[in-house]
Amino acid sequence: MNYSKIIAGTMTWGVWGKKLSKTEMIKRINHCIENGITAFDHADIYGDYTTEAEFGSAFAESGANRSSLQFISKCGIQYLGKTRHYNKVKHYDYSKAYIIASAEASLKHLKTEYLDLLLLHRPSPLMEAEVIAEAFSQLKKQGKVRAFGVSNFTPSQMDLIRKETEVSANQIEFSLTQHTAIHDGTLDYLTTNNIQAMAWSPLGTVFKEDTEQIRRIRKQLDELTHKYNATEDQLLLAWLLKHPAAIHPVIGTTNLDRMTNAAKTVAIDLDLEDWFLILVSCQGHKVP
What are the pLDDT digits (tens) for 200-239? Predict the structure, then answer.
């Protein structure tokens, strides 16, 4: 499955973020498409189970061609909120019935006949690979989901699922300030097994905190902005894109200019030493 290199994350499009109107969502859908961002990342729980339906309503009126887009969604988290007040505790449900029901609800809300990719949102201590495989198999045979994957899974957790069914993608937290996947074998595993790497929160905490580490990072990024004619956020994305795991960043912004900047990042190829300069600025010490 081919997804646009930059993926538009929708978590903050609804009540969990900017509370965009239908008109504002339509504008962002079309703006993304015009800039080559054709993959849209969802989860059933976003907006306390409301954002998919709001996006779907906007998509239906956007005039966008569904066949040229990729819709991603996630399932499994039973969230504590107003819409599911009957839940006693936040938990994970990977029963066959729940996976199928969640996927079908996403189809209804997004106003689409199929999902390009369905992810298990987070690993559960109680997940059973055989049960998950049965759900995936049924959804695929019915043409409701084209590919399956996971999110926030370790290599051993992926092995558990892969013994019964194919895992085509893993969406993990990965950024300059959260780069443990480089060292713990996760990205190596994805590359070795031809599993698509996707990264949520790809800018990390660079624009959210003011620490000694962040000041080092921003100083280094500032020194490189003129060389690459790029903004700091573009350099952070370019740092991810340089990795041979072919990571697809999932951007969370709703700002049109930042969406445009993100789309242009694919043209930036960091020099080898510049990549390491940025890494060292984060770590605060030279590589071993």
Answer: 999 999 999 999 999 999 999 999 999 999 999 999 999 9
Q: What is the pLDDT of residues 56-81, one digit of tens each?
A: 999 999 999 999 999 999 999 999 88
3-state secondary structure of 74: strand
Distance CA 99, CA 120 (A): 9
C-alpha span between 208 and 210 (Å, rounded): 7
CATH number at residue 48: 3.20.20.100
Domain contains 250: no
Domain around 34: 7-173
Q: Which of these, 73, 103, 71, 59, lies nearest to 1 by C-alpha position? A: 71
| Distances, alpha carbon 220 to alpha carbons 100, 224, 225, 279, in Å | 47, 7, 9, 10
Asked whether residue 235 is assigned to any structural domain, the reply reads no
Number of structural domains, the chain?
1
Cα–Cα distance between 109 and 106 in angstroms, integer? 5
Strand locations in 54-210 (E): 70-75, 77-78, 91-92, 117-120, 148-151, 169-173, 196-200
User: What is the C-alpha to C-alpha distance for residues 141 and 68, in angstroms, rounded to an integer?
Assistant: 22
Phi, psi of 213 (to 5 degrees): -60, -45
pTM, two decimal places = 0.97
With respect to residue 206, please indicate whether it lies within any of the assigned structural domains. Answer: no
Residue linked to tokens 């201590």: 125
Positions annotated as catalytic residues are 46
Cα→Cα distances 229→212, 224, 270, 283, Å: 25, 8, 12, 25
